[in-house]
Amino acid sequence: MDASANRPDTYVPHLQSPTRSSGESQRGFMRPTELILAAPTPRLLFHSIYIQRSIVLDQLPRWRIGRSKDCDIVMPDRWCSRAHIAIERQPDHRYRLMDLKSMNGTFIGNSRIQGTHILHHGDRIAIGESELEYIDLRDAPSPHPYTDHSHESYGQATVLMTHSSRTQGEMWRELLNSQGISTIWATSHFELEKIIAHVESLNCKISLLLLDLGMPKTNPYDFCRQYRQSYPEMQVILLSGMRTRVHESECKWAVNQGAMALFAGLPRENMFADLTSITERLQIISKTINWPYLNAEALTSTLLKLQDSIDAEISGLVL
């Protein structure tokens, strides 16, 4: 019997190579075949040269991942075993990761798992040359990365973001996280209300919406006006997709539509040359959400990490 017969319709087992958008291809950044999603339902994100997608784990009680075509998710990674790992839903609706006696092992961070591991939000699973990320917003928000806890009286700050570019979205997420600001990344504007309701049910609050102008099949200005009316205390900042320059008239129009500001795309080469502009944008966000101060040391460290990662990816694809 074909193992794919009982798979959900939303899952495509035979994946093609990731395509690239025209704006990213020259610099070697792959556009996912399916946009990365961070939503209330537990999900698994694939960060791999072979697969760029997300899956809803609730679709099956047990997922097998490996090279074999009989697996629920086929990983064409030569360093993966034919049946490398399994992920099972537990009675309490948590998920358990199991290594299926793989040849090269399964790692959470730098630690090789022995037997099983209960997954927690943010766990990064390394198998072969690929990395998987477990997303479960039911878990408590991540702690702030500061060693100085003087800001804790300000509470938790959470930014809800949409972005059509994986690279730009990840850069924004890393920059905000460096300042102790939690980030939820949605794939479409249509999911925002559902995510806001879920976050509020956890006694948390969305401090700011970052809406990307480049999202397909939507008018972000309409959503900006809509959410300013529905959530008058929630501010909105618009993002210009991958365009690193925006005209002054565009910025004025964005403000007229109810946005606090319109930000140009983040530079992907020589980020430190644009340090002043990046700092100004983070300062605007901090002021908008009443966040206490800018952590310059954490920002510098994050920019170095991002630039190294981008340079390595470009170099690898050029070679």
UniProtKB/TrEMBL annotation:
Q: Which residues cross the membrane?
A: none
Q: Where is the Response regulatory domain?
A: 158-280
Q: Which GO terms describe its biological process?
A: phosphorelay signal transduction system
Region described as Disordered: spans on this chain? 1-28
Which ranges are annotated Polar residues under compositional bias?
16-25
Query: Which UniProt keyword terms apply here?
Result: Phosphoprotein
User: Does the keyword GTP-binding belong to this entry?
Assistant: no
SMART domains the UniProt entry points to: FHA
Q: Give the InterPro entries listed for this entry.
A: Cell_Proc_Reg/RNA_Proc, CheY-like_superfamily, FHA_dom, Sig_transdc_resp-reg_receiver, SMAD_FHA_dom_sf
Q: Which residues form a coiled coil?
A: none
Name by which UniProt lists this protein: Phosphopeptide-binding protein
- State the organism of origin: Parathermosynechococcus lividus PCC 6715
Q: What is the lineage of its organism?
A: Bacteria, Bacillati, Cyanobacteriota, Cyanophyceae, Acaryochloridales
